[in-house]
Amino acid sequence: MKRRHFLQFSSSLFASLGLSQLDLTQQAHRYAQVLAQSTPRKLALLVGINEYPTALGGLQGCLTDVEMQRELLVHRFGFNPNDVKILTNTQATREGILTTFEEHLIKQAKSGDVVVFHYSGHGSRVRDPDPIGNDPFNSTMVPSDRPPESATSSATPVPDIMGQTLFLLMSALPTENLTVVLDCCYSGGGKRGNLIARAARQSSDVTLDASPEELEYQKQWISKLYDSKQKFQEVREKGVAKGVVIASAARDQLATDAPFDGFHAGAFTYLLTRYLWQEPGNRSFKTVFENLALRTQDVAKSSGMYQIPEFEEKQGSNNGDKPLYFLEKTRPAAEAVIRKVTGDQVEFWLGGIASQSLKAFEKGAIFSIIDDEGQEQGQIQQESRVELVGYGKVIKSPQSGMVKEGTLLREQVRGIPTNLTLRVGVDETLGAEKAKVQAALQGQKRIEPVSVEQRNTVDYLLGKVTQEDIQSWRKQGESNPPPVGSLGLFTAGKAPISGSFGRVGETAENAVTRLRPRLKVLLAGRILKSLDNGDSSQLNVTTSIQAVDGKGTSGTVSSRGSRNSQSPLPPGVINTQKLQFKRGSNIQAQVKNNESRNIFVSLLFITGSGEIINLFPLDWDAPEEKSLVAPGQSKIVPQPEDNFVWNVGDTAGTFEVLVLASVAPLRTALKGLQSIARRTGSRNGNPVALQEDEPIDVIGNLLGDIDNNSRSGGAAPQLIPKGNQAVSTNQLAAISTIVEVVE
Length: 743
Prior knowledge:
By secondary structure, this protein is an alpha+beta fold. Strands 26, 28, 29, 30, 32, 33 and 35 form a 7-stranded mixed beta sheet that branches. A 6-stranded mixed beta sheet has the order 2-1-3-7-10-13, with helices on both faces. It is globular.
């Protein structure tokens, strides 16, 4: 299977802006740079539209996008709430958007101010009277008052806001410190798997024109800003008018409106805002964002869509490279912020929680109340969650005045449910066999069949390959797709899971039986994902992965405790999450203990198809002793005495390395691995692949060890409800690294 960029996200950028394609790293780098500048005033206009006419297709996550951006701007980047203007649904008409842009941004901004414009909604395309290059169309933002007949008829011009108009509005701003974020796309509207594309539905034979009002509006701005229309065209051809523009998908890709655990959001906006909540402000954004797409795989894997972000800055400017000196004055990294206080009851926004960890933040999680120096002043225990809003109570009172709106919260303990399930969507392509598949899945422990309705969250889909799937995959570069009619597993965005498809004509019941071991492995992977706390763990641990033969980019991934302490990196290793190795490379991992106490380390290798392999420790005579890493010391995997070479293989793709560093031994899990190794005849120094029910058994033992260690290490047992397994940030660092194998 050809490599698929499931870990890169963004939305379609307007062709008229002349954007070049870069990676999400550069987008987020420049986005945060602009936000972090010290300026007299910061202004934002956030637009989100869910409610469109039925014929155009409604969306579900755009209002969440706006809320995510608003909370981030106000509580992490210091925007005055009164300077953040929000337009949603019926407010976001053509006139409403244009008037508010003029009144709130253009008329109020001054030179040196920071301005943010965010749009989440449908995109589309209209004929461009003055096209640039060979493309006769101009991309648009679709306002809420677009008529429904535009989906099937070319007769009536549409009130869309063209990219050309956005260029003019950007030109009219008196500041260069402008960030435009566009979470939309303009082709391929409709549904894909369990996701919705953010492009207005339109029949293939429909070609739309902009309204006369739109063209007249452009004419007025051109006369105000430029000597002539020819001069405007010359400037427009050079690229972005002011500041920087970020979009969430290339021209022929889809920006996804995705269901998460109890809510919908734009996958790109969720990824970006969540990352910026957790990123500390004590180092350059160039380092931080070099591999944002690979490091924040939680959102990407939730959708499985093929999206490559786009970014552009004004030609000849240094807008994308301004120094981050103001970052030292930003507030500390956090997972949540208090929004409302009533007595000892607290409502808080969970903007920094990864989507795949949300189940661990429903009941029993404990947060530290921190001051602006990042020091704990008290504690809150979570009692419930609705979408991204948590509710809880103060259990350790801080000094007077600390529990108030705007106070930041950091994860202390998460509570992973013992009955966490794998949610498998039963796809409509199964037809009459759908009921049989649901019944067969219900008979498997901790496998939860769910309907595919773009409302329910699914981890994977089970269905048949269609001709439409083949056509879509070929556009994305898929060279060896499974055959039409075969049954197997897909991501939520209908990307095929390698090795999961059977022969054509296989019955649904036989397919479920065949896939049972694979589903167990994927369930184990889902549980492991809920453990990943590298961005919040207080342990001082770094993980480095290097190419032994020099065929790749060596780099390190560190826990929050390590980032806060500024621990030195191994010689020759840069601090980045962008790890790429050429096919056939031999690699090794190094785990360093920067603590003043012993830690115990395990290392798991998770293949692109979900297989889980234990790579360390591999001394089955004394696994606990082997896993110990003394203060200031490191462990290298493979060990010199091991019987394997860690080769990335000859197939392009991605895999994951999960390092578990605990302050106490993971005894039960190690004994389980020891038993498996002896039963299968694995010698010391040989990796152990987990099969059948082994992944669930090993991960269950692992969670039991972590729960015991967390409770005995300070997480009061009476505070953690039954049915939840405690994971303390002071006891464990679970650090995930995504590695890409390239041609």
